């Protein structure tokens, strides 16, 4: 079973690496990083490089797509080559999924029109402008349509565990969870806009401006 994770300039690292760490634990699943071209792709802050081992054209029929987010998705929503790859791949996938603002690319490709979906909290208006219906949930799935979307960054781990359950079974998902020792006990209750204080939300917005 082949999972394709696209890489692009200014992707968010954990959006891609979180699901990768879950999925590659299962022996029946192979993961490949794909991109416009083979070679290193830098993350959104430029500090981390990850290698795309195949081009989009070389992986035209993956079993699963996991599209990560990042500020670079704002360019991809107008990249017809990427959008057509998403549309074409989705015709054959068992599931087409996204993490964070990767949902913008799925929406721009027409896959989320009229569907409830999730994304990072800062991208909700843009997502809805592309025809999707935002809901503030960590993971949103439409199994008949073979679509699953995850909210910001760390939620991709949750989505990937659910994906393993759907593809292989619950025991496999729980084994992957144990292997990565994913047992969240965060020191702060500030992981969503509903929980964070106004001061924390303002500080986060300021940090985002420095990254743009």
TrEMBL record:
InterPro entries: Class_I_gatase-like (IPR029062), DJ-1/PfpI (IPR002818), INH-QAR (IPR052158). It comes from the Bacteria. Residues 3-165 form the DJ-1/PfpI domain. Gene3D superfamilies: 3.40.50.880. Pfam families: DJ-1_PfpI. One of its GO terms (biological process) is regulation of DNA-templated transcription. This is DJ-1/PfpI family protein. It comes from Mycolicibacterium phlei DSM 43239 = CCUG 21000.
């Amino acid at each position: 079973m082949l999972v394709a994770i696209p890489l692009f300039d200014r992707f968010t690292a954990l959006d891609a690496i979180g699901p990768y760490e879950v999925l590659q634990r299962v022996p029946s699943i192979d993961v490949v990083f794909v991109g416009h071209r083979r070679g290193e792709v830098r993350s959104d802050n430029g500090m981390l490089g990850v290698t795309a081992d195949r081009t989009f054209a070389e992986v035209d029929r993956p079993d699963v797509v996991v599209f990560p987010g990042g500020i670079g998705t704002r360019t991809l929503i107008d990249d017809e080559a990427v959008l057509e790859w998403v549309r074409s791949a989705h015709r054959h996938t068992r599931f087409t999924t996204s993490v964070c603002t990767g949902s913008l690319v799925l929406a721009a490709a027409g896959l989320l029109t009229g569907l409830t979906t999730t994304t990072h909290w800062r991208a909700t208006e843009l997502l809805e402008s592309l025809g999707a219906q935002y809901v503030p949930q960590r993971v949103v799935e439409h199994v008949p349509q073979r679509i699953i979307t995850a909210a910001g960054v760390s939620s991709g781990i949750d989505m990937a565990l659910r994906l393993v359950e759907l593809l292989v079974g619950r025991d496999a998902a729980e084994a992957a969870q144990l292997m990565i020792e994913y047992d969240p006990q965060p020191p702060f209750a500030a992981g969503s806009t509903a929980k964070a204080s106004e001061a924390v939300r303002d500080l986060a917005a300021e940090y985002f401006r420095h990254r743009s």
